[in-house]
Design brief:
The chain is built from 12 helices and 11 strands. The protein has 2 domains: about 1-135 and about 280-320, Rossmann fold (3-Layer(aba) Sandwich), CATH 3.40.50.450; about 140-275, Rossmann fold. The chain is elongated, with a radius of gyration of 22 Å. Helix 1 crosses helix 10 (about 280-300), helix 6 (about 140-160) crosses helix 7 (about 175-185) and helix 8 (about 200-210) packs across helix 9 (about 245-260). With about 350 residues, the chain is α/β, with parallel strands linked by helices. Strands 3-2-1-4-5-10-11 form a 7-stranded mixed β-sheet, with helices on both faces. Strands 7-8-6-9 form a 4-stranded parallel β-sheet, with helices on both faces. Helix content is about 40%, strand content about 15%. Bound molecules: 6-O-phosphono-beta-D-fructofuranose.
């Protein structure tokens, strides 16, 4: 059996740990051969295939990023995408794929599986928004980075008695904002799932100043104000209605400063949350996902995704996992709203 491995979408700490465990178990236990497809679906389209053996995966467990490269290429947006992928797999005698990716990459995998390609999906993303799994690897590392940043910002906020707004990643879901906001003791947490009221946010901020406390506002990049609370004229919205030009964090700081009369600053954490060495939890989860994915290949159980449920790794149909996004449950958010202000 020859297995191809690819990583698609935004990079994320733990990708190399999956590649390593897939290749090691596949070779040592099942005598599989492996190749890597470079840069996600792009490599599958272009026939960019590289050898993958035990020596190639040595020492990569703690390394961030992906040794295979990644891209956001969607083969169905390319002419003859399916045929080109089939040609690549045939040319290299690849019997099955292990596809490591987030929503977009796994949606393509779902479609390819319907078209008859043998593959197993592994969910990754710092956003933790893949449906069907309790956690994706990468999330824990991102939350750790964001929490440390919030801890540091508290002292600066207090020293200058100003509001500090921290913008974290999360276009469609507020998992990072919620977890890091709670862990870091943020005073306000704003997530895409719950359009916020800017008047209420400013009231919360004011209430902190009244007790001589400098507020920290944690906002997910995809959070939006309630309808009617329009963004300043010099900003533009993207296709989802999210503030794009200078970001929601910057907009919030300007609004808060204007309304409270006190300094406000924004820190956008950006790709720092995706880079660097994975946390122990992410290495553990990524390694287990890899071991179970290669077992699914051995079983000929294709069209499935491995997922974490409690402490168990399960398999579920890819079509089920990619049918929806895993959003923050409203009751989880409400639980902590009591701390705001
Ligand atoms: O999906 C992961 C993610 O990091 C999102 O949180 C973020 O919105 C997006 O990727 C950024 O993508 P890119 O690196 O392509 O700009």
């Amino acid at each position: 059996m020859k297995v191809g491995v690819l990583t698609g979408g935004g990079d994320c700490p733990g990708l190399n740990a999956v590649i390593r465990s897939v290749v090691r178990k596949g070779i040592q236990e099942y005598a599989f051969d492996f190749v890597g497809l470079r840069d996600g679906w792009l490599g599958a389209l272009e026939g960019n295939v590289v050898p993958l053996d035990i020596s190639r995966v040595r020492g990569i467990l703690p390394r961030g990023g992906t040794i295979l490269g990644s891209s956001r290429t969607n083969p169905f947006k390319h002419e003859d995408g399916l045929r080109r992928i089939e040609d690549t797999l045939a040319a290299h005698n690849v019997d099955a794929l292990v596809v490591i990716g987030g929503e977009d990459t796994l949606s393509v995998a779902t479609e390819l599986s319907h078209q008859g390609i043998n593959l197993v999906g592994v969910p990754k993303t710092i956003d933790n928004d893949v449906f069907g799994t309790d956690y994706t690897f990468g999330f824990d590392t991102a939350v750790g980075v964001a929490t440390e940043a919030i801890d540091r910002l508290h002292t600066t906020a207090e020293s200058h008695m100003r509001t500090l707004v921290v913008e974290v990643m999360g276009r469609h879901s507020g998992w990072i904002a919620l977890h890091a906001g709670i862990a870091g003791g943020g005073n306000v947490i704003l997530i895409p799932e719950r359009p916020f009221d800017i008047d209420q946010v400013c009231a919360w901020v004011q209430s902190r100043f009244k007790i001589n406390y400098a507020p920290i506002v944690v906002v997910a990049e995809g959070a939006v104000p309630k309808e009617g609370q329009m963004i300043l004229k010099d900003q533009t919205l993207d296709e989802f209605g999210h503030v794009r030009l200078s970001g929601i964090g910057e907009w919030l700081a300007r609004e808060i400063e204007g309304r409270t009369g006190k300094d406000a600053r924004t820190t956008v954490l950006g790709h720092i949350q995706r880079g660097g060495t994975p946390s122990a939890f992410d290495r553990w989860l990524a390694t287990r996902f890899g071991l179970h994915a290669v077992d699914a290949v051995r079983d000929g159980d294709f069209g499935v995704m491995v997922a974490l449920r409690g402490t168990q790794i399960i398999r579920l149909p890819l079509a089920e996992a990619t049918a929806q996004t895993k959003r923050v449950n409203p009751s989880l958010y409400d639980e902590f709203e009591v701390f705001f202000g």
